[in-house]
Each structure stands twice: as C-alpha cells, then as structure tokens.
Design goal:
- The complex is a heterodimer of chains A (913) and B (400).
- Chain A is mainly beta and 913 residues long.
- Chain A has a domain of 114 residues: Immunoglobulin-like (Sandwich), CATH 2.60.40.1120.
- Helix content of chain A is 7%, strand content 47%.
- Chain B has a domain of 233 residues: Neuraminidase, CATH 2.120.10.
- Chain B is built from one helix and 27 strands.
- The N terminus of chain B is likely disordered.
- Classes of the chains: A mainly beta (913), B mainly beta (400).
Chain lengths: 913, 400
C-alpha cells in the first residue's frame, strides 16, 4: 500500500522548490466500485481550474502556500467540497474525493497532506516552520525560527558567514547588498503576516540560487475570507529585578475580504525595551560599582522598533491576480559603551530603517504560470551621537526618530565641511563621575566623534515562467536590479582632519545586477531528475575609483537525482552557487566587521563573486505514520571568499580581496514526531567541520607560526576553522497539550485544561577563536585553533487559551534561557577567558596611573573620601591612588558582552477577533 | 518542524471561522467577568513601572573637610585665587590651577560657598593644549553674566608675561561664549597705559569698574628668577554695549589704587590706595569721595569688599603674601580681626569675597611658617621670620 502511494507520488509532476507555492492533486472516484470519474470539474477557491483525466486524476499547479478551498462537481453526481486544505511551498497536497450519485450521504474525503519526506520531487534540503508554529514556539521573529534549523548557528548556515544567505519574500529576492555581513536587513516581517518560513541549505532552485550558505524563504498570507484579527500585548513589567528588562510589545493584525474578491492583510508590530541587548555577565564584586546591586539592566541600552506591513490581493478576473505589498520597518537603539558608563548621554546610538514595496502580477493556469514582480527596497543606517537624549513616552517607546550630530552633513556626503571639526561635537575628556574618581578609562563631555551613514536602494524587476506537462516541469526566467549606494563616515569629528585624523570617507555608485535561469524536472517511473543552470552577473558601475574590471559573470549549474528505495527517498545533488560580495568591500570605509580588519579599510573595487560548490546525499524516511527521519551528508567547497590583509605599514589599514577558500562538510540527522495525541517531538543533530585555507603571505610570515619555538616554518598555506565552525549542535523541540476537561477543577474551571507547552533545548559545542599575545600582533598557534566552551539553553512557552465573550484569546508566558545559564560567547584573545587576568588588570592600572599620577585634592569632583587614607585632603601617592586605578580598571574591563543573553520573560495576552 | 499529517490546531486556526456558540445568562455573566479580567490584566500590565537601570551616585565631597568657623575649602597643590560670589546662589567662582592638566591652565571653578566638590570647570579647551590659559579677576553680575580677564601664553616659548590678554564678558551658563570688551595692554584716552587690569566689579548690566595696573618683572640678580610686581595705577569704569569695545572713564581721585569693589548700588564704589590706611568711598552721582573707615596710621590696607553693611579688608602683612582679615561694621564702625583656624594655620589672607548676605567670607590664604631667629651666641630673640607657603588655597570664614 505504501509502495502504491509512493509510486503515485512519483507519477505526479512535482516541482523544484518553487518557493511561494505548492500544488494540489488527487483522484475523484465513484463510491460504487471506486472507479475513477473522468471529466469532473475541479475548482480552487471558487474558480474552476481543471478537469479529471480518464483515471479520475487531477492536478492544480502553482497554488500559493496557505489554506484553500477545493470543490468537485460532475454532471449526475453530488458536488463535494473540502475547505481548509493546507498547501506548503514546494509540496504536493493530496486531496481525494469519493462521491455519490444523487445521494444524501456525505462524501468521504480522504485528506492526506503532502509528504515532503517521501516526495522525491523535493530535492532541496528544506526545513520549514509555519506561522502557526511561530505562535506556539518560544520564538518571536522569523530569524529566531529559522535558527532552529539543523546546521544553523544564529544567521550562519552550514558554516557560512553572516550575510551569505539570501532572503526571498513571496518570491521576490530582498537583500541588503551593502553590508549584509555586518548589518541587519533593515526590514522585518511581522510574524502575524507569515504563512510559513523555511530554510533551504542546498539544492534550492536556480531561480533563487545566489546564496552560498542558505536561502530563507518567507511566504505571507493573502487576505482571509472573513474579517478577523489579533491584538496582543506582551511585557515583563510585573516582574522585578533582573526579570524586568523593560519590555513592551503590542501587535495588531487584521485580515479580511474587500469588495470584488480582493483581500487585505495588515499588521502593526511595535516593541520597546529599556535594555534591548541584555547581558548576563556576573555582577561586579565591588559594592561601590553601581552595577553591583542592579546587574541586569544596562543604562543607555534601550531600543524600539516598529514594523508595519500591508498586503492587498486583487483578482483581475480569470487567471490574473495582482498583489501589492508594502512594508516599513524602523529600529533605533541607544548603544551602551563601557567608556561612557557614567556619562551615558555621550554614548552612541543608531537607527536603521527600511522600506519594501512590491507589486506582483500573476497569470496562473494549470499549463502555464507567469509571474511579473517589481520590487523597490531601500535601507538607511545611521550611527553617531544624538543631538538630544530621547524622552520616553511609555516604557522604552519614544515615538520619535532619533536625530544625530552631523546627520545633515552625512546625508549630503559633504566631505568638504567634514574637514573641519564639527561644531556640535566636543572633545571627550576623562569622566569624574565614576565611583573611583581617577582620570582613567571612562569618558565624558564629548562623544567618540563618529558619524556613519549609508543608504542602499534597489529597484528589481523579476519575471518567472512555469510550464507543466504530464511528466515534466520547466521553469525559466530572469531578473534585473538597479542599485544605488551612498555611504559616508567621519571619525574623531571633534578634531579637524589632519594630524592622524583621517578625512571623511564617502562613496556613491550605482551597481547593476542581472540573472537568468532555466530549470526542469523529469519524472521517470521510479526516479526524478532535476537539472538547472543559473547565470549571474553584477557590475559596480562608475563612481568607484580604481575600478578596472567591468561586469563580473558566473554560470552555476545544478543537478539532483532522487529515487525511492525501500520506503525511503534518496537524493543526491550537486550544485554551484555564486554570491555577490557586500558592496562595502568595494569602497573605502571604516566599518566594524567580522573580517579581522582594522579601523580604516581600503576598498577593492575589483572584488568578484564568492563561490560554493556543494555535494549532498540525503535519505528521508517515514518510519511510522507520524514519525520521520532525515539524514543529510554534505560537502561544500568554498572559493573566492572575501578576506583582508594588512596594507602598508599601518596596522590599522587593510585591503579586501577574494583571498580565502575553504571547505565545509558535515552531516545532519533530523528525527521528528508530529504533534499528534497531545505531544510532538523534533530532534535535530548536526556534525560539521568548516575550514578555511589561507595563502596570504603576509599573514603566514608575520602572524602565523608553526612549531613550538615560534620562529620556524612559514608554510605556503594553512588550514584553520572558519569563524562559524560549530562542530556539534543539537536542537530538541518538544510540544505538548493538555486535553480539554483534564486536571483539577478549581472554582468551576479546569485551569490546566488545554494548556499548551513548547520547549526548545539547544546544546552545541563552542565556536573557534584565535589567541594572540598580549599586544595582539602575533597569533598563538593557528587562527581559530582554540574553542569556546559548549553552550546550551532551554526556552519554553506556556499558553492557556481563553474564551472571552465568544472570542478566543490566550494568556501566555515565554521564557528564554529558562535556567539563566551563562553561556560564554566571546573571550579575550590574550587570556582565552571572558575576563581580564590579574596581570592584565595591574598593567592597565599602572599605565593609567603613570599617565595621571597627580594628587586629587578634596574639592575636586574626583575626590573619594574613603581613598584619602591619611585624611589630609589629598589622595596622593601610590598607596592612595593605585587602588583606585585598579578598581577603575576592573570596572572598565567587565566582560559585559562576553556572555549570551540572560533569562528573558514575556507575559502576554492576546485576543482574536 | 514540518508536520505532514493533519495536526490539531491551536485555539483557532488561521483563516478558519470561529466556532458557533449559544450563550446563556450564566455564560454571559462569566463572559463579563472574563472581559473585566482581561481588561484588568492588560491594565495591570501597563500600569506597573519598569525597573530602572543603575545610575551613578553622587560621589563628590559635601561641605569642608574639617568644618569650623575658619575652614579650608581647597587643597589643590596649585594656586586657587580670587574667589567671587555668584549672586542669587550660595556658590562661588574662583581661579583654579589645574594640576591634572599638562598645560596647567588656570580655569574658572564653581563650587558651593560652604565648601564641597567643584560643580563645574570652565577652561578654554577641554583637553590640554600648547598654551597656558588663565581665567582670572572674575566678577559675576546679578543678571547672569560673568566678566573676567583671559590671558594666554605659548608654553614652549617660556615668556615671562602673557602673550595676550583680554577683558571678556559672557553668559554665566557658558562663560567661554564671551565677547571681548577690551584688549589688554591698553592705553587710555588720557594717555595712561595699563599692562593689566584687576579687581573687576559690576556696577550695572553694561558697566564695570576695575583697576588699571602696571606690571614689572624685576630680577634681584642677572640669573635670578623674575618677580612679578603689579602696581595699581588708577580706577576706571568700562561702559560697553552688545558689540564693540568698551569705553573707559577715569574715576577721579583714585591714583595709586590698590583695590576696588562696588557698593550696595551701582552708584558707589569702595577702594584703597597705596600707603593709605583708609577705605575710601566714591559716589558717581555726586562725584563726592569720603573715607568709609580708617584703620589707623601706618596700617597697610587693601583688598576691600563690601556687602550687607559690612566691610572686609586685608590689613598689614605683606602685599605679595597677604595679611590679616578684618571685618568692619559700617554702621557701628566696629572692627574685628578674624581669628586664626584651630588647625592648618596661621594664615595670611588675600582677595576676600564677602557673601551678599554678609555672613561668610571666602578668601585665598597662604599658610605661614613663623620662625624665631635667635642670636646663636646670646640666645636673644633677634627677629621672627614669617614665611608664606608657595600655594594659595581658599578658606571660608563664618561671620556672626
């Protein structure tokens, strides 16, 4: 029986990871004799789209992810309908009908949702989460949900660097091509508009092939058939101490029909946090440190974000539909800087905002589907000193945009005005407001003098065609995008340019990218063959000094073969992927990044694609009706990775190039039991080894040493782990639900009944890091040859459904890092520990004392009575001063950001209407 | 995560219609309670205050280190000079030598008149630079302006005197945002040249009084360090508008003036003269001068200040080092000398500033070392050498 089902699936013309839709197929049979009913008309969402063939088989292609209504009618027979048919992207949903001749018996409907485990047409390595699951799991954003996937380390997938992934929203590519490796996308999809989100780490369609680590695909809802929505409020206000981090979040969503068959979805999601980047570092031992009594919240660390999205679907008649989408996101944050711990008004802040507008015209018939998409994406980033400290209106919500010193000059890219010291910027001086008083480490009276601004815009046009036959599908199309990049950065703005103060760096250029692809699937009796090829090119355009190379081109073929053997689907795939590097590497700038570079960087305008070639073998099996097992084994060869080497003699100067190459290989084991009979379980384990190979002569001669004495072999090349090489990783997701009417009865109610719980346990080995000597100019051993300790966390979400005046609602509590485990995420390179050692502290204190050995008189704001041991009105000499410098050094060196986040609570109440 | 068989959805599946329900009176009552509960929950959540992040404490000193009738306010190893009261507050401003800066600038320092930590420094630059800048001879008006003399000297050139001086007036909130009222040195319309100016005082919002000085740098020998000898020439008023330089007017009968201070109204000044034991008073409206008080023949009198019917002056001692602090009740002409502090003295005072309410005096002072000199042969006391310590600090004296 299973084999027949499998063969049935094989015969179906599947699809190669068409990312926004799936298909529906099945048989219509007469009750008597179970013979197939030919010529029956099959409808989708009120529109008749196809007929059954001679065997009673039908297929509806290019069905958008989500819930749909399927109806069947035939002359002489009872009509039948099935609503709530769930279609997932890239999957086939099977809906069979058995109907009677003019009888009043209800038709028996066999509802068998698509089995992506056994479907050989699904060659991509995909892990998905639905919008509904997002609400049931202790995750808040799409990124957090995707991070549950096997092989994911935050936003790093299969050892890839941040920014090496691609993001697809309703079939349209969206990417911060300027600085994806160091900055956020700029727009955020509110989870309430989500139908599903998935991560594909291999074998994804040539349509979206421009990513070498993974593809994040998001499908949003269309308007519902009936008006409804959700209002929710989350907070941690009722809690105290370290449990209250100043969270307030409100979400309002609405969805429903409009005249003419149109549908509208709109969501507003706003969140404020008094501590937007909470730390879990140990409290200082010194009671004089103000953080001693209140270690949880950091001052000047608040943040607020707003996301507003609206989507309109308008059927134009027949097979034509247009969808209009608008998304606006803004995220502004105060940034805690330890140097400004006691004078936070001088610490920096940042604001990121993004807009995405898209229009999608679709012509969908069973034989041919054509999609025309146009998208406009803009993203703006600014960081610097605020002109005024924000006034909070409610919690951390200010309701007003931040304004920055020098903002107008930065937007105008006025490098001439920027040559002089900025009038509104003051030179920082050593603070006198610390408990220690001594002039060391802590700053006041002026900011760090930075103003950084950049803007990225993209206009993209994309056309896709899908042609289906009885045993094949062909996809082809292309895209063109025109981008615009503007950057500006000025550092040390309180000083004029010159005498070690670099001039402002600005860039203006307009790259162009284009791509084309063709892809097809051929179905044999017991196998599926997928072939595709993608062509990519990008050209930086004029405006970048020193550019010698014009357009860069890349051709990337894909191949996959899948078959079903003894109840398991086996897929072997090979593919080549190319990715455009961040545009920030093409121009001079001074960004913080993960590239081991210095402060002022020379751009390299001739940088080309980063490439990957991936081989993968996977086996998927359904051990039981509710249980699946997947095993993936992969080997990914990386080439042309962007790296940096020092330039000239200034250790702070470096230049980029496609220097590095490497290899990521690993295996993933995923076991899943669906949520049936009140519980479900998913266990994902990944074993991975990600290594880079360096041939850079400067690094090898000056920094990397082989041999115990440190002065021997300079190898021609060395291999070392990539920054995101996490060898072992386990993610366990458990779900449970208490049945209705179960549990103790209290005051006429069953408080435990219908209680839902989801727990996520994550455990993984540590990421690699490099050790250096005390001055940081020589590596100890090979790069990344040391490991951080293992990390693990437990997250939990408890939900209690309610009914209020006929409306459904839920009370919930979401706890992240339930045990408040202090995971080490970063260490000092000189000690290999998060905290500085005693010798380092003593050195810091001594250098600070030597810089300011003068006595501190009684009337000075720096005077601290307890330190005046002889009570003579002067804190003077080593005996009285050095202990203060030591305490200040210890305060300044607290490893605040070396640990993962602390336990976080969200108490929430939602109402559905 | 990917469930491939029908799952039982959470409370309401997205897109599905709500379940039908028949309401009974009891159910309605429970529903109202639930509505109120939900509203109360949301309101309670929103009404709670969030925990606030940590904040730095107030760490500076409060009050003098050793309180007393005569209490020391500053312990700076550098010079603390020429205090002045800020009208309408209990604060003083003075010139403090910044020993914590490489350029050793002498900046304005604001602190409570009763002692404690400096609340604000005003310097030319927030960080040390190549020049020595001095802000001195401060006077604060009742309408929130501050007048001072700013001098600067390029450190590397090791000149004796300042490279540049100017008389500035600016807002008290931001004294460095000042306008130049006059450049110094200056030559008056009547031909006098002042090398410096001192003893600034406010007569009105646009009128100052000050002394024009002659400054010499004599050396007792060729290789000896130079002394700075400042000699008062005469008293002038400076009338100034919002722009342009000020206009100087000579106050008659003030030659050889050694100090000047405004009276209770802008129409009167009190001043001292070299070699004169009296405190003189001059009224601008009448042009009449008189002697407010005479300390007696042979007394060395200077540094007069007047407030609330009291007059404070420095008497005897040495001009360069200071002297005794005398308080005179102008109504009764009773003269009293301020007692020495219980510890930390004896002191010689200079440049006293009398609080507007007349209850406190802040003055710069130097600690004296009194050394009796005996004839080694006979043991007879020959003389007493009084040596003043190198640095000036501020002291506060509480007056009854």
């Amino acid at each position: 029986m299973i084999r027949r089902v499998l063969l049935l699936l094989l015969l179906l013309a599947g699809r190669v990871s068409a990312q926004t839709g799936g298909s529906i197929s099945g048989h219509v049979r007469q009750r008597d004799g179970h013979t197939g009913l030919a010529g029956a008309e099959v409808g989708l969402d009120g529109r008749w789209v196809t007929h059954t063939d001679s065997s009673g088989f039908y297929r509806i292609r290019e069905v958008r992810s989500g819930w749909h209504l399927v109806t069947v009618r035939a002359i002489g027979f009872e009509s039948a309908r099935r609503d709530s048919v769930l279609v997932r992207a890239g999957q086939i949903s099977v809906v069979n009908f058995v109907i009677d001749v003019y009888t009043i018996e209800r038709p028996i409907v066999v509802e068998a949702f698509a089995d992506s485990i056994l479907d050989p047409a699904l060659v991509a390595t995909v892990q998905r989460i639905s919008g509904e699951e997002l609400r049931r799991f202790p995750v808040t954003t799409v990124d957090e949900a995707i991070a549950l996937s096997a092989g994911a380390v935050g936003e790093s997938y299969r050892g890839g660097r941040l920014g090496q992934q691609a993001f697809i929203l309703d079939g349209l590519g969206v990417k911060n091509q300027l600085d994806a490796s160091t900055g956020p996308l700029g727009v955020r999809i509110p989870p309430d508009i989500l139908t599903e989100a998935s991560l594909a780490t291999n074998g994804f369609s040539a349509r979206y092939g421009q990513a070498i680590s993974g593809l994040v695909n998001v499908v949003t809802k269309d308007g519902d058939e009936h008006w409804g929505g959700r209002a929710a409020y989350e907070s941690d206000r009722p809690l105290s101490g370290g449990a209250d981090l100043g969270l307030d979040r409100a979400v309002v969503s609405a969805s429903g029909p409009l005249p003419g068959g149109a549908g509208l979805v709109a969501v507003i999601d706003a969140e404020g946090r008094l501590d937007a980047d909470p730390v879990n570092a140990p409290a200082p031992a010194d009671p004089r440190d103000p953080r001693h009594d209140n270690p949880a919240l950091l001052p000047h660390n608040s943040g607020e974000r707003y996301d507003a999205v609206a989507k309109l679907r308008v059927p134009l008649g027949g097979p034509y539909t247009v969808r209009l989408f608008a998304l606006r996101s803004a995220d502004q944050r105060l940034l805690y800087d330890p140097a400004y711990k006691y004078d936070t008004q001088w610490a920096p802040a940042q604001r990121v905002s993004g807009d995405l507008l898209s229009a999608h015209l679709q012509r969908a018939t069973n034989a041919l589907t054509a999609d025309l998409r146009v998208g406009y994406f803009t993203r703006q980033f600014i960081r610097g000193t605020l002109t005024d400290q924000p006034a909070y209106q409610f919690g951390a919500i200010t309701g007003r945009s931040f304004h920055f010193v020098g903002e107008e000059m930065a937007r105008a890219q006025d490098t001439i005005t920027a040559r002089a010291a900025l009038p509104a910027m003051q030179t920082p001086d050593l603070s006198n407001r610390s408990p220690w008083g001594v002039p060391a480490f802590f700053l006041a009276t002026g900011s760090n003098g930075e103003i950084t601004w950049n803007r990225y815009r993209e206009l993209r046009g994309q056309v896709d065609f899908s042609v289906g036959g009885p045993r094949s599908d062909v996809y082809f199309g292309g895209e063109v995008s025109r981008q615009q990049v503007r950057t500006f950065q000025r550092v040390l703005g309180y000083l004029p340019v010159g005498k070690g103060v670099p001039p402002a760096a600005a860039s203006t250029f307009s790259p162009t990218s284009a791509a084309g692809y063709v892809e097809g699937q051929l179905h044999g009796e017991d196998f599926v063959l997928s072939l595709g090829v993608r062509y990519d090119q990008f050209a930086p355009g004029g405006g970048i000094p020193g550019s010698k190379v014009g357009a860069r081109r890349s051709l990337n073929p894909r191949f996959a073969f899948s078959t079903v053997l003894k109840g398991a689907t086996v897929v072997a795939s090979w593919g080549r992927f190319s990715q455009v590097p961040d545009f920030q590497y093409l121009v001079d700038a001074a960004f913080d990044d993960t590239m081991r570079t210095g402060r002022f960087r020379r751009g390299s305008p001739d940088i080309g694609f980063e490439d990957a070639t991936q081989y993968e073998f996977s086996v998927r099996a359904r051990a039981r009706p509710n249980t699946t097992v997947r095993v993936n084994v992969f080997n990914k060869l990386l080439d042309g990775l962007v790296g940096s080497i020092p330039l000239g003699v200034n250790p702070d100067s470096s230049v980029f190039g496609n220097f590095d190459f490497g290899n990521v290989k690993g295996a993933e084991l995923i076991f899943e039991r669906a949520l049936v009979d009140w519980w479900g379980l998913r266990v994902a384990y990944s074993l991975q080894s990600a290594n880079a190979t360096a041939t850079n002569a400067f690094e090898l001669v000056h920094r990397i040493r082989i041999g115990p004495t440190g002065d021997t072999i300079n190898p021609a090349r060395v291999q070392f782990p990539l920054d995101y090489d996490r060898r072992h990783s386990v993610t366990i997701i458990g779900q449970g639900r208490v049945p209705a009417g179960w549990g103790p009865r209290i005051a006429g109610a069953f408080p435990l009944a219908r209680l839902e719980a989801a727990t996520i346990v994550r455990a993984s080995s540590g990421l690699p890091f490099s050790m250096t000597n005390a001055t940081g100019d020589t590596l100890i051993g090979l790069p990344n040859s040391y490991r951080l300790p293992p990390v693990w966390t437990i997250d939990m979400l408890l939900r209690r459904p309610l009914r209020i005046a006929g409306r459904d609602g839920t009370l919930y509590i979401d706890v992240r890092n339930l045990t408040n485990r202090r995971n080490v995420e970063a260490v000092r390179r000189d000690t290999g520990e998060p905290q500085i050692d005693s010798a380092g502290l003593a050195g810091l204190a001594e250098r600070a004392y030597q810089a300011h050995p003068e006595a501190i008189p009684y009337e000075s704001p720096r005077y601290r009575p307890a330190a005046d041991l002889d009570h003579n009105g002067l804190i003077e000499g080593r005996t009285e001063l050095v202990p203060l410098y030591l305490a200040a050094a210890r305060d300044f060196s607290q490893p605040l950001f070396s640990y993962g986040p602390p336990r976080l609570f969200r108490l929430g109440l939602e109402l559905l209407f | 995560m990917n469930s491939n068989v029908p799952t039982l959805h959470s409370s309401v599946p997205q897109g599905a219609s709500a379940r039908a329900r028949v309401d009974s009176p009891t159910t309605n009552m429970h529903a109202h309670l639930r509505i109120r509960f939900a509203i109360a929950m949301a309101g309670a959540l929103a009404a709670c205050e969030h925990t606030a992040p940590f904040r730095p404490g107030a760490y500076g000193a409060s009050g003098p280190l050793n309180p007393g009738v005569v209490a020391r306010l500053t312990f700076n190893l550098g010079q603390d000079l020429t205090p002045a009261w800020v009208p309408g507050t209990n604060a003083i401003v003075y010139t403090a030598e910044r020993m914590d800066r490489a350029d050793r600038d002498r900046c304005l320092a604001f602190m409570p008149g009763t002692g404690g930590a400096i609340t604000r420094y005003v310097c030319g630059t927030s960080t040390p630079d190549e020049s020595l800048n001095v802000y001195g001879e401060t006077a604060v008006s009742s309408d929130g302006h501050i007048a001072y003399v700013r001098a600067s000297n390029t450190r590397a050139l090791f000149r004796i005197g300042p490279d540049a001086q100017q008389l500035d007036v600016g807002p008290l909130a931001n004294p460095t945002d000042a306008r130049v009222v006059h450049i110094v040195p200056l030559t008056t319309a009547w031909g006098r040249t002042y090398d410096a100016v001192s003893y600034l005082g406010w007569l009105s919002a646009h009128r100052l009084v000050m002394i024009g000085d002659s400054v010499r740098y004599p050396r007792s020998c060729g290789s000896c360090p130079a002394d700075t000898v400042r000699t008062g020439i005469e008293i002038v008023t400076v009338d100034f508008a919002d722009t342009g330089l000020g206009t100087l007017t000579l106050v008659p009968g003030t030659d050889s003036a050694t100090s000047v201070t405004p009276g209770a109204t802008g129409d009167t000044i009190y001043f001292t003269r070299a070699g004169d034991s009296g405190i003189h008073r001059y009224a601008f409206s009448t042009g009449q001068a008189s002697v407010a008080f005479d300390f007696g023949p042979g007394r060395l009198v200077r540094d007069v200040t007047v407030a609330s019917g009291r007059l404070v002056a420095i008497v005897d001692g040495r001009v360069a080092d200071g002297g005794d602090l005398h308080v005179v009740n102008l109504a009764t002409t009773a003269d009293s000398i301020v007692a020495q502090p219980a510890s930390g003295g004896p002191l010689w005072f200079a440049r006293p500033a009398l609080a507007p309410d007349g209850r406190q005096v802040v003055a710069q002072a130097r600690v004296l070392t009194i050394t009796p000199i005996f004839d080694p042969a006979t043991g007879i006391l020959l003389r007493v050498d009084t040596t003043a310590a190198g640095g000036n600090d501020l002291w506060a004296v509480q007056l009854p």
